[in-house]
Amino acid sequence: MRGRPEWKIEHEKIYKTKKNNNGMLVARIIQKPIEDDLLEFSLMVQNRKTKAVLYHQPLVVTGNDYYSFRLARGDIKWVSLYTVAVWDGLGAKLVEVAALTGKENERISNAHCSAYRERDV
C-alpha cells in the first residue's frame, strides 16, 4: 500500500467490488460513518444491467479508527454463480446471500459483531 492510510473515514466509500462469473451481478462492500466514532460496513448486491439493488444490509459496526476497521475489512467471494459470501479479516464468515432472491443463507451472531467494538486498541 502506497501513501498514508486513512485514520478516519469521513464519508461513504466503496471498499471492495467483485463481479460474479457471468458478469450479471456485482457485490460491493461499502463503508460508511454513522457517528463520529462508529463505522458501518454493509453488503450491496446489484444487477449490472438493470441497476436494481437486490440486497443491501449492514454487516458490522466498528469504531472509526484505523486499527479497529482494519479487523472488519474482509474478503468477498462468489461461492457459486448466484451466491455471494463475505468473510472478515480474521477468517469468520459474516454472511452468505442468495443474490437473485436477496435471502440470507447464513448470518453471524450479534456476539461476533460486538467483538469488533471490544477490540479497540
How does this structure look, described?
The chain has one domain (13-118). The protein is globular and about 35 Å long. The protein is 13% helix and 49% strand. The protein has 2 helices and 8 strands. A hairpin with a 4-residue loop joins β2 (25-33) and β3. With 121 residues, the chain is mainly β. The chain has helices at 66-72, 110-118; strands at residues 13-19, 25-33, 38-47, 53-63, 75-80, 83-87, 93-98, 103-107. A 4-stranded antiparallel β-sheet has the order 1-2-3-4.
Mean pLDDT: 82
What strand order characterises the main sheet? Answer: 1-2-3-4
Radius of gyration: 14 Å
Please bin the fraction of helical residues. Answer: 10-25%
Return the string of H and E elements: EEEEHEEEEH
In this structure, how is the largest beta sheet organized?
Answer: 4 strands, antiparallel
Low-confidence stretches: none
List the helices and strands and how they pair.
Blueprint: E1 13-19, E2 25-33, E3 38-47, E4 53-63, H1 66-72, E5 75-80, E6 83-87, E7 93-98, E8 103-107, H2 110-118
Antiparallel strand pairs: 1-2, 2-3, 3-4, 5-6, 6-7, 7-8
Q: Main traits of this protein?
A:
single chain, 121 residues, 4-stranded antiparallel sheet, mainly beta
In short:
By secondary structure, the chain is mainly β.
